[in-house]
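Would you kindly consider the sequence and fold I have copied below?
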Amino acid sequence: EGHEFFDLGDAEVSPNDLLLAYTADYDGSENYTLYIKNLETGELLSDRVEKIADDIEWSNDNSTVFYVRIEEESHRPWQLFRHKLGTPEADDVLIFQEDDDAFFLSMG
């Protein structure tokens, strides 16, 4: 509601079933934003990561989400990051980077 376009990229429930991580694109650019929702209260956490690919995965610790960053120039998914809930995006840790332009990075 309130948007001309919406695409839900991925939605993953945490292993303890308390949180929902999801990615959304509101303008058709295929630049997704990561959101985290508390399933008990319905509230969105303050954690946001912008301009990422659509796929995400939880760690078994229920407080870490993995996501793939998109390269600006080629719009190619190329970097895998780890985000710890409650920390700023600037503290996210680069786990892997695919430097060969012939390949796209994804999780599964």
Notes: The mean pLDDT is 97.
